[in-house]
Amino acid sequence: MRVMVVIAGALALAACSGRAKEPSAEEQAALANYVPPFVMSRLDFGGVVERRFRRLDVNHDDKLTRNELPKRLVARFEQIDRNKDGAISNEEWSAWMMGRFDAQDINHDGTVTSDERERARELHETDLPTPAEEPANTIAPRN
């Protein structure tokens, strides 16, 4: 009888002390402060540029004025407004933003990687926005 009790106790102890669930790859990465590599194609960035223009154009007149730009970009207004009409069109915005993308695409393969972004940061260039930084619903309905 004692042997049966000892065996039952051992089995119960073994069942309770089972191994902890192995963390998922995402959990392991988070624990290690892992940042996945960044890769953005020129095509994907074009979508980000369009969504950002629509989000900034709060009065929906298809142009950006100084008061619609983020404070960090107001100093670059003259540079972006290529035709000097006092407003930034979608075309001017896109040309300027895509120029920033192209400047960071060191090997000219149509993508910007983590290494290329880091190099641009080291050169004190403004970082490129990513799709993840854009709100989910950025295009307001037009009247």
Automatic annotation (TrEMBL):
Top-rank taxon: Bacteria
Compositionally biased residues, Basic and acidic residues: 106-127
Keywords, alphabetical: Signal
Domain called EF-hand: residue spans: 68-103
Secretion signal span: 1-20
Region annotation Disordered: where it falls in the sequence: 106-143
Gene Ontology molecular function: any one: calcium ion binding
Protein name: EF-hand domain-containing protein
Organism field: Sphingomonas endophytica
